[in-house]
## 1
Amino acid sequence: MINCRICNTNIEQFMSFGKMPIANGFLTSDQIQNEYFFELAPAFCSNCGMFQLIEQPDPQKMFHENYAFFSSTSSYMQIHFKNFAEFVMKGFLENRQDPFVVELGSNDGIMLHNFKKAGFRHLGIEPSVNVANVARSEGIETLSEFFNLELADQIVERHGQADSVLCANVICHIPDLNSIAKGIKCLLKTDGVLIFEEPYLGDMVMKTSYDQIYDEHVFIFSATSVSRAFANHGLELIDVFPQKTHGGSMRYILTPIGTRSVSHNVGELMQKEQKQGLHKIETYDQFRQKCETSRKNLKELLENLKQKGQRVVGYGATSKSTTVNNYCGIGPEHVEFISDTTPVKQGKLTPGMHIPVKPYELFTNNPPDYALLFAWNHATEIFAKEKSFKAGGGKWITFVPQVKVIE
Ligand code: TYD
């Protein structure tokens, strides 16, 4: 028995994905000996509704000077963050006197550069120095530190309180959510707004996209769990907007309690979550069974193709693929290499299963029989880009929501 990270109630894991390495821990062959593993096991708290990991590696093991995740690798994500910035500027910052925007986990500046361009006072907080340096080189103000109450105090002292605190795919990474919420409350003006978006629990359960579960995602949020967790710190969920990113995300808008009216969207989404059974432990037992079926089907398909001598190459060395490969036992004997456009991943091996990651050109120059779509969240962008692969007889393998070959 362990205690819920939010409300301290006793909770139990409902499944285990087994021993897992760091999802973005791409490595060289001489680093294999010291590779770090932990048990990836999720639990659900039926008291506060929070879906969470039992164990999470030390943050310094995940976010450091060699962090391999650069947000700007997808053109769709660049457009998404431009739209996100406009949504904030138009909806929440118009008519404000010299507004100040803070982004937690600002990565390579994919969102903040839009605020910089529009002349807004801004500050990014990004502990991974290599990605933060990319943002700095473009003139985006960035601090390389982990956000907490102390840092919030220092920011307020130096810049004043923020009109808006923004985060994308960050809050769910931070195990001490209660302390982050305290820090945000202190950083925000009394009429300020917190806006964040994260992979959405409802989508993950509906699509059996269990690959959202990996070391960085210590929580997978729903409107119900977000509303309860932040209410404890004086912040109220006032609106929600579903997003297509990361295979199904939710944008949450929160303000100091009682400062703005609550949109009907919030109540409607919470009712939908009840209908979907997101509050019931049985739902997660069914989810576990669906994960097991998905694993069996994917492994069988790949074994079959191997026996037939078909070439299979992975597409996109995503963080998510670390869970899939390690949970299903997929290695270089099944997948020849994974093609990825991120330079720091190329020439490395994937965490745990050690599949080589190679430049995209190797995929286009010598197309395989099958491409296993690990970056399924970018399917629209990728299918549009890879028409010639399909036209040349190449087939796609997807595994969300079901294992399927696209002929
Ligand atoms: P991402 O969608 O951020 O997933 P995760 O959060 O699970 O890491 O990662 C996409 C990965 O796929 C990234 O390494 C870049 C790569 N990629 C390509 O190689 N080609 C493409 O066309 C796209 C869109 C992504």
Note: The first helix runs from residue 59 to 62.
## 2
Amino acid sequence: MDRAIIFDVDGTLAETEETHRRAFNQAFREAGLSWAWERHQYQDLLAVTGGKERIRHFVEAFDPVGAPDENLDGFVRALHAAKTTAYARMVADGDLQLRPGVRSTIATAQRKRYRLALATTTTPANIDALLDATCSDAGRDLFDVVCAGDSVPNKKPAPDVYLRALDELGLPSTSCVAIEDSRNGLLSAVAAGIRTIVTPGMYTRHEAFEEAAIVVDDLAALDFAELESLFR
Ligand code: XBP
Ligand code: MG
């Protein structure tokens, strides 16, 4: 029976959320808005997954100056498109690296002919930007299956994106292990029946992970045999 490792993207493959936060703020400035999400506020806003959903939540919760009285959907979509453009530019020009142990875990999985997948809330374009910047030629081809963003009706912590990944892999949850950084991601994977390793990130270190099979600082601190012990 095939086995697969399903990686989350933001916060798991790399510490990308600080770049996302800066990209949101860049889009706000370009739109002439005085909004600026500081780190502490962004950590709270990350409770809402999905950039469009996060902007909408911010408007509805804080009624900031400059938010439109109508056509909020169009306003949010335009703002998020600008943010996605800014993010891609920041990743291309920046120095994001894969988190410790990610590259070696992928290499060991490839050597053992495990399949690799991504299950993420983020916009697909963000995945290409990150993989182009960190995985050079291999990039997205590293992953058999990529399930991202709006491809599912309900974002994390709903199980939709992991259920879609299982479906596209054609594997049962018992043949897969998920790797996540956040409680939302952990709840999503566990709800899909997948044993999950959590490597908390800079914005999620404070969260609860009792449903995780393993919690470890990063994948460099994990013996691959411990990951393999989670397959059933
Ligand atoms: C994390 C998210 C995303 C990013 C921003 O996704 O919730 O919304 O914060 O990306 P992951 P978008 O599941 O990879 O941890 O603005 O494209 O949503
Ligand atoms: Mg994440």
Note: The mean pLDDT is 97.
